[in-house]
Design a protein that fits this description.
344 residues; alpha/beta; Rossmann fold; UDP-galactose 4-epimerase, domain 1; 2 domains; 7-stranded parallel β-sheet; 4-stranded mixed β-sheet; 19% strand; globular; binds NADP nicotinamide-adenine-dinucleotide phosphate; binds ligand G4F
Length: 344
Amino acid sequence: MKKALITGINGQDGAYLANLLLKKNYKIYGLIRRGSTNRLYRLEYLNIKDRINFIYGELNEFQNLQNEILRIKPDLIFNLAAQSFVKYSFDNPTYTYEINCVSVLNILECLRRNKLFKIKFYTAGTSEMFGNISGKKKLKIDEKTPMQPCSPYGNSKVAAHNLTSIYRESYGLFACSGILFNHESPLRGEEFVTKKIVKNLVEQKYSKKTILYLGNLDSKRDWGHAEDYVEAMYLMLKSKKPFNYVISTGKTYSVREFFTKVAVKLGFEPIFKKKGKLEVCIDKKTNRIIMKTSKKYFRENELSYLKGNSIMAKKKIGWKPKFNIDTLIDDMISYELKNQNVQK
Ligand code: NAP
Ligand code: G4F
């Protein structure tokens, strides 16, 4: 039986990836922090918690990580654990750098020092690494686009991405850093904007009438579905040659457009009104304020536009997303209705 080790297994992507690999008959080992034991709800929701072999550890603890890799001898390692929230990285840059970069170096070093060249390694790169490179021309980003990160998070991921390429080229490791654009799902963390919008608007529609507070409504993201994106991670490690592929849908929407789509699907009639530098959104049907912008959610430095080009992944590893923005939103709303026990 083939074995896969997944760090960050209790995160959004870790849970979907474990589910996918179990279906492909892999034995799954999942690294989690001891403090995370009560945060296994995603694995419980997918009904796979009891099929995971948990390993407790900290990502930046080299010795522990090395012992586990030598003990398990996995065929595949997926390093998904990270401090993944961009806004938090402005307040805690050192921590973000240690977790997101030093941990990757630790795994690469472990593979090199122990000559574990048969293990295939994937680490989670991100579209945040490009920063505002698209500029006013609003270019589609591909594998050749230069990286110009505009957040400590983005910079930590560029360092990890470059180290992965360096170890691949210098020592012949099968190591990939997948350049994934934003991907969401019902199991997305509640601090991220899509989940925050869907969860709150379902609550406003059916139970609590708590106004939603958001930051920049005009930044644009290329949003896909996590289930499609974990498939790309697997395909990258199954391919003959390691390569850092861009994974994206090629479509972009603003936060305002995403909010509006969700609101309309739930039966609101959203009207936006400027209030100085801030904005409010009123539901025309009830004349009630449903959203306000708040300075608290604006960023020190904003990445304003992301749109990817995944032609290379389509050609070389046969990856193509099944979800689009509407089916993604429908999936997220449907989970929230069930989760909040809504009787329509
Ligand atoms: P997520 O839901 O935030 O999950 C992050 C995981 O990392 C959690 O399981 C978390 O465990 C774990 N973790 C954090 N710090 C750790 C530490 N010190 N030691 C061990 N584990 C630790 O993130 P995601 O959305 O699944 O994303 C997966 C990866 O892809 C991340 O590396 C992220 O940066 C990257 N990425 C995500 C996207 C996206 O749109 N989702 C796009 C591009 C790249 P706890 O429960 O203990 O916190
Ligand atoms: O949902 P977000 O926090 O995602 P962000 O910053 O794009 O990062 C996500 O995608 C990256 C890939 O590009 C990953 F690497 C990273 O780990 C993470 O998964 O914010 C999306 C946009 C931003 O422009 C933000 O300023 O939404 C804007 N926004 C507006 N109001 C908000 C809010 N974001 C959050 N989280 N909360 C708000 O209230």
